[in-house]
Write a structure and sequence with these properties.
Length: about 140
């Protein structure tokens, strides 16, 4: 049975949706890799990637709709996490280009990296900020 949520925690956890978006991206890349060196059917990857983007969008909407939240802590964690993830995704993207990945595969991989680069800082920052007592809650 689930623990009762407090006023600050939404019933739907934004981090869960962000993790779901990363899982959809992993499924997209795994499906793409399973067809190598042939070209996979485009609808499979586009559907999985679309579900990943939709899950991330739900995470953002859920996060923004949180009424009482420690936004300063969230931003203090999210900014350096985003910079670190951006550096890592830049290196991965360079590896794709260096390896002569082109066309549909490069587009799918780049979009997937973009979703992951946005989702990971959200997961980290939300996981930290949700446990920081807010002045509005403590009084």
């Amino acid at each position: 049975m689930d623990a009762p949520t407090t006023a600050a925690e939404p019933k739907i956890n934004p981090a869960m949706w962000a993790v779901a978006s990363v899982v959809f991206v992993i499924a997209t890349v795994a499906t793409l890799a399973s067809y190598m060196p042939d070209t996979p059917p485009h609808w499979i990857e586009l559907t999985l990637l679309g579900l990943g983007a939709l899950a991330y969008l739900v995470a953002v909407v859920t996060l923004v709709s949180t009424r009482v939240f420690e936004w300063a802590t969230f931003l203090n964690v999210a900014k350096p996490a985003f910079i670190a993830v951006l550096a890592a995704t830049g290196v991965i993207e360079f590896a794709f280009l260096y390896d002569d990945t082109r066309g549909f595969s490069l587009t799918i991989l780049t979009l997937g990296l973009g979703i992951v680069a946005l989702a990971l800082p959200l997961i980290l920052a939300y996981s930290v900020a949700r446990h920081v007592p807010s002045p509005k809650r403590s009084g």
